[in-house]
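Run log // design_07
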């Protein structure tokens, strides 16, 4: 192994999967009302976070970014072994995690002269950041140097796309994503938002009336995108993501995979679905669900 990988927890791979991949996790913090902050996937599991949201309607949790010291704690062990470090962070437009990591890298070089640290603003979030981390691990395991891996990773964020929906507009309103009037009107009409992620930004993909129709619309948007772009999914990593309801996600994921087979694509290998974490969950409530894809670097 020619370098070590660190990622903040917003990649939504979960602690166990990151450990399996040999990636160090730096946790975001989340708090409900005036309670203490919990470290994501350390003091509180993502499943428990969503259960607490569901149990406390009208309570809007808040997140806090990892500190410089949190990153230093992750950087020191590989630096002590002389390993270069690749640190992958949430889109810097959304959080100061990237800057915390950069500050930690500067401090690390004081403690370990000659330490090599590359801090990347992934310009991605949630499942796309997770797919990016997985691809970084593939490059590391293919014995690329840190510099070679960074060059191979650079073009990938621009290929990322997410299609998702959520069931509760109040969380989006509270987070400033939509206005109070729009949230009230949407709740009255039982309208669900269709949200996309492309070019490092969240975008509106429209609305649908009711949960069932919104899930069908997400699926339709995804397949329409594949057809329009003429994508070969052998060149891409694909992931589905969800919040609290695993059973609903299972049915949704199966509909995605069955649709891909109908279109002549090979069934994608998604060993572990992504449970969408706190950094997105505080804005969506406990009901986000969707699908995303990111191009591979070309090394299998």
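design_07 sequence
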């Amino acid at each position: 192994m020619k370098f070590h990988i660190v990622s903040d927890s917003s990649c939504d791979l979960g602690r166990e999967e990151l450990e399996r991949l040999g990636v160090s996790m730096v946790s975001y913090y989340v708090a409900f009302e005036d309670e203490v902050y919990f470290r994501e996937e350390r003091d509180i599991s993502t499943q428990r976070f969503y259960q607490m949201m569901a149990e406390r309607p009208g309570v809007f949790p808040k997140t806090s970014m990892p500190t410089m010291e949190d990153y230093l704690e992750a950087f020191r062990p590989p630096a002590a072994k002389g390993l270069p470090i690749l640190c992958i962070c949430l889109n810097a437009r959304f959080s100061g995690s990237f800057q915390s990591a950069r500050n930690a890298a500067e401090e690390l070089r004081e403690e370990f002269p000659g330490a090599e640290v590359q801090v990347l603003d992934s310009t991605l979030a949630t499942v796309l950041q997770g797919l990016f981390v997985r691809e970084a691990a593939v490059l590391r395991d293919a014995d690329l140097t840190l510099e070679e891996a960074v060059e191979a990773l650079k073009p990938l964020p621009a290929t990322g796309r997410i299609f998702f929906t959520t069931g509760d507009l109040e969380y989006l309103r509270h987070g400033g994503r939509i206005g109070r009037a729009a949230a009230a009107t949407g709740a009255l009409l039982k309208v669900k938002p269709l949200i996309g992620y492309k070019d490092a930004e969240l975008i509106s993909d429209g609305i649908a009336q009711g949960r069932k129709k919104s899930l069908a619309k997400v699926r339709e948007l995804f397949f329409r995108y594949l057809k329009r772009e003429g994508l070969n999914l052998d060149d891409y990593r694909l992931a589905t993501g969800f919040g609290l309801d695993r059973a609903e996600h299972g049915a949704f994921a199966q509909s995605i995979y069955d649709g891909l087979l109908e279109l002549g694509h090979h069934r994608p290998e998604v060993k572990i679905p992504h449970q969408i974490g706190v950094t997105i969950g505080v804005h969506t409530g406990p009901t986000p669900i969707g699908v995303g894809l990111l191009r591979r670097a070309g090394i299998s």
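The longest helix spans residues 211-229.
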